[in-house]
# Entry
Amino acid sequence: MRLLFLLPLLLATVSAQDAGTLAGRVTDAETGEPIPGANVIVEGTRLGAATDLDGHYRIIGIPGGEYEVTARYVGYETGLAEAVRVEPGATARQDYAMALADVDFDCCYGCYLSRPMIDRDPFASRSLSGEEIGRLPVER
# Structure
């Protein structure tokens, strides 16, 4: 009976030994500053992590094998590492130095930049008399 109770614990220990860990740091390529909140994804799996305030990440429970791993953050080019080898029971290291992305605002936001911020519709304006202004619920 005790063996049946310990069996799930034993299986969890064995499966944990079949998995490895991936850890590293994501930084700005130009300044070397950490990039907090970057997403690091082990492609082809549901595994990933976000970097902490110092740019560090740690992904546990990765089955042993070779993986493509990407790092993404808005405004930066995607960091790509191919053939990252994860060994069961070990920690592999993969750092990223990400460069700022070139953004063509004319392509994406050109139509917004060419329009005025406030559309002054002549039919939307209305004149108020002094009496109407006096009745408005505002403090003086």
